Amino acid sequence: MMIDQATWQEAAADLASGASVFVALWAEPAGDGCVVHLAGRPRGSGDVGVLSLMAHDRHFPSIALHHPGAILMERALCDLHGLIADDTPDPRAWLDHTAAYAFKPAIGPGIHQIPVGPVHAGIIEPGHFRFSVNGETIVRLEARLGYAHKGTIGLMRGQTIGHAAKLAGRISGDSTVAYAYAFACAVERALGIVVPPRAAALRGIMAELERLANHFGDIGAICNDGGFPLMNALTAALRERVLRLSAACFGHRLMMDRIIPGGVEADLTEAAAALIRTTLADLLTQWGRLSELYEKTASLQDRMVTSGRLDPAIARRLGCGGYVGRASGQDFDARRDAPYQPYDTCRFTVPGVSAGDVDARIQIRMAELDQSISLIRDLLATLPTGPLRAALPDTPITTGHALVEGFRGDIFAHVRLRDGLVEAAMLRDPSWFFWPALETAIEGNIVADFPLCNKSFNPSYSGCDL
Amino acid sequence: MRRTLIESLFRGKLTEPAPRVGEAEPMALLTELGETARGRLGRSLAIRELDAGSCNGCELEITALGNAFHDLERFGLKFVASPRHADVLMITGPLTRNMLEAMRSAYEAMAAPKFVIAVGDCACTGGVFAGSPACIGAAAQILDVDLRIPGCPPDPVTLLKGLIGFANALASAPTHRSTQS
Ligand code: SF4
């Protein structure tokens, strides 16, 4: 909806008061100016609304001035479109690394800085961390990203829906199913079509397999950073088995390009469905032992409990979703609160705690594993028969958006189609809100606990570098 | 914990035989590579993985090389923390402009003889990101690439085949690139 500046300011005030939750901010070129879009949802609801403002002379009133959760997105948007957010609290370049960059200062006796990255010691994505420390204690962390900036959203413009879906599935490879899902839902809403029931159920199964694989892998990796590699060795094997299962059933270990606008690419055979059932039963037995191992290992608990605590008030203010939000008192899950097929007819519970520490984030993930396994079982038990795709009609110009719950949290997708091509798109990762949350949660922790805390948030780099 | 440990002992190992590379027998390959690595490069082939802007899919599969099923260290292959410790720079991603300098510095930090392996369609050709103004594209545009392992992402068995085959090639061409600085 095109609005004026006064309405824009009102929307910013609603974000600041907490009446609505910030979802995304993006822009698209329009004539010699730009249109800036703001997506938000009422607190407690998944009903996303989009407001659009014409940015005359490339200026628009800052949202971040009222709502700090929008700072990173405003910076990225200024780099991508040359826009100026008037009175923004942080005008530094973000994706444009040719611009000069000054890290935020931390001044005091004995405080010094430790720069890390963008090439890290492990096999992880590129980013730069600047720690300001006093002895071993971190007094300030600043994450500088943009190293994985590929211009993905820009590449989607003018492409066919099919090609844009491939790009969407590569915004963050660990969430390729969730991204393809979110993009497909946005396209389907834009075109006003409903996917066949069998395709919807298969999408749900893929999304839950992706969640299982990532939760298994990450729980082990967090424990590894907590000095307990045995857990990592055992959960990495569980993750591998989920990936092999995915390959056996859907033809690709990460299930890339299996969800397409209109439906799914491949069917699930009877034999494959049976394989999922037996493998899940076995995984569940082994997982039971491992969760017990986690709970009963005192040295591990000592590292996890109270480390990297994210204050629920900050989680609320930033609008953190996923396991980060749900471990810090936020009760939102797009599968339940912005229902989409097949979850609109599924039964599952959304776990929640408010301790906000590394342990709390692990507890949420552990509870979600159980939920995912039972969701897959239910979806298999009621798997409808029928076609796998709906045809995509030709329409002159339409827009649609969707929220889909990836393993990290809710992914927002927006698309504008014109004559079968993608005219504009936006995909927003949950990590946009995890990065600033991590920066606050790490304060007062020791440097040696950073990998542990970071891994418990596990924000995507590529997902934000767009 | 005791129960988990005892069960792990009796369940037997998960590790699988090496993937076949050409006609050679998997176990023969294993020994051969051990000797190759020792002969040419000391005790092992050390790999520094460098994400030059990937979507992180390639990293997931490279990480999976270390799990109990694939266990790449038994082949004398290992990932190291610093380019200074590395014989091989393994590059993923469509080389973003923002990673160019970091990639160059990492390569320059390595001691000769040094090798470059491009992993994944992005590092091999630019993949779906080819043509993006934010990306340079294939790693070969900037560095001499010794081996390409395509795929989006390549699965761990494909990765292992490539790496074992590469080490074999090194063994059969003893002077290969040894003069490179
Ligand atoms: S090759 Fe595929 S999986 Fe690897 S970084 Fe590129 S898009 Fe991601």
UniProtKB/TrEMBL annotation, chain A:
InterPro entries from the UniProt entry: ComplexI_49kDa-like (IPR052197), NADH_Q_OxRdtase_suD (IPR001135), NADH_quin_OxRdtase_su_C/D-like (IPR037232), NiFe-Hase_large (IPR029014)
Residue ranges the record marks as coiled coil: none
GO molecular function: NAD binding; oxidoreductase activity, acting on NAD(P)H; quinone binding
Keyword Transport: no
Keywords recorded for this protein, A-Z: Oxidoreductase
Domain NADH-quinone oxidoreductase subunit D: 234-392
Gene3D superfamilies: Cytochrome-c3 Hydrogenase, chain B (1.10.645.10)
PANTHER family in the record: FORMATE HYDROGENLYASE SUBUNIT 5-RELATED, HYDROGENASE-4 COMPONENT G
Name listed for the protein in its UniProt record: Hydrogenase expression protein HypE
From TrEMBL, chain B:
Gene Ontology molecular-function annotations: 4 iron, 4 sulfur cluster binding; metal ion binding; NADH dehydrogenase (quinone) (non-electrogenic) activity
Top-level taxonomic group: Bacteria
Limits of the NADH:ubiquinone oxidoreductase-like 20kDa subunit domain: 55-164
UniProt protein name: NADH-quinone oxidoreductase subunit NuoB
A Pfam family reported for this protein in Swiss-Prot or TrEMBL: Oxidored_q6
Family statement drawn from the similarity comment of this UniProt entry: Belongs to the complex I 20 kDa subunit family.
Cofactor list: [4Fe-4S] cluster
InterPro entries registered for this protein in UniProt: Complex_I_20kDa-like, NADH_UbQ_OxRdtase-like_20kDa
UniProt key word Zinc: no
Keywords from the UniProt entry: 4Fe-4S, Cell membrane, Iron, Iron-sulfur, Membrane, Metal-binding, Oxidoreductase
EC number: 1.6.5.9
The keyword Metal-binding is annotated on this UniProt entry: yes
